[in-house]
């Protein structure tokens, strides 16, 4: 892979601040989230300059969910990235919590007693009711990751996604074991540069 892949999580949302599961549902960025998106775009611009890349050379791939669209719009303006609707790929959506989407942990525990403990016991394979397990997300992410890596043989790629699927993409790129993927951070004030089999954190 000749060129880097820059992997981003969206900025902080209202539901992030409230500690609500989002999954396929959505909430807008907070003021902090908009500032994070701008800072990530500015940091990406610096990384591109250091690498000798023009912003126009960067291919963008992104989740179609609203919080990523909002983050991308702000970051792209700051970094000078160009993108269109073809950049959005439904396979890069966040993992779904199913019936738990929109709820905070005490609400989940009250309605499904013991479910969170069961999830902790089998974190990779546990499937919330109507939702996805990490194993299912990994299967969904495999083909788009392969496609992104193929693109990076020709040009740098910026991927805007989410916390859960972001750690899966990063872990699969690195060939990390499941237990390590589950412990990976999900920053909103940093992003990762994936290149030559390594993942370097870029703080904003």
Q: What brief labels describe this structure?
A:
single chain, 204 residues, alpha/beta, 5-stranded mixed sheet
Tell me the number of helical segments per DSSP (H or I, 4 or more residues long).
8
SS-derived structural category: alpha/beta
Helix content: 40-55%
Low-confidence stretches: none
Q: Shape from CA axes?
A: globular
Order of helices and strands: EHHEHHHHEHHEE
Q: What is Rg?
A: 17 Å
Main sheet: strands, sense, barrel:
5 strands, mixed
What's the β-strand tally? 5
Please give the alpha-carbon distance between the first and last residues: 25 Å
Spatial arrangement of strands, main beta sheet: 2-3-1-4-5
Sheet-strand content, in percent, reads 5-15%
Average pLDDT level? 97
Describe the structure.
α6 packs across α7. A five-stranded mixed sheet has the order 2-3-1-4-5, with helices on both faces. The chain has 204 residues and is α/β, with parallel strands linked by helices. The chain starts with a strand and ends with a strand. β4 and β5 form a beta hairpin. It contains eight helices and five strands. The model has no long low-confidence stretch (mean pLDDT 97). The protein has helices at 14-18, 31-51, 66-79, 105-111, 115-121, 134-151, 163-174, 178-183, and strands spanning 5-9, 59-62, 157-161, 190-195, 198-203.
């Amino acid at each position: 892979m000749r060129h880097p892949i820059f992997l981003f999580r969206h900025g902080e949302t209202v539901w992030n601040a409230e500690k609500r599961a989002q999954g396929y549902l959505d909430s807008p960025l907070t003021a902090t989230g908009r500032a994070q998106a701008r800072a990530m775009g500015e940091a990406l611009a610096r990384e591109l300059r250091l690498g000798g890349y023009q912003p126009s050379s960067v291919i963008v791939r992104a989740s179609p969910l609203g919080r990523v669209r909002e983050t991308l719009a702000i970051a792209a303006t700051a970094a000078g990235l160009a993108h269109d609707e073809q950049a959005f790929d439904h396979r890069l959506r966040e993992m779904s919590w199913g019936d738990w989407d929109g709820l905070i942990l005490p609400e989940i525990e009250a309605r499904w007693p013991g479910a969170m403990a069961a999830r902790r016991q089998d974190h990779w394979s546990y499937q919330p009711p109507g939702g996805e397990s990490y194993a299912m997300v990994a299967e969904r992410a495999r083909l788009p990751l392969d496609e992104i890596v193929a693109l990076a043989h020709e040009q740098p790629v910026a991927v805007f996604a989410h916390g859960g699927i972001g750690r899966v993409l990063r872990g699969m790129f690195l060939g990390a074991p499941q237990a390590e993927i589950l412990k990976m951070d999900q920053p909103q004030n940093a992003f990762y540069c994936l290149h030559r089999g390594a993942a370097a954190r870029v703080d904003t």
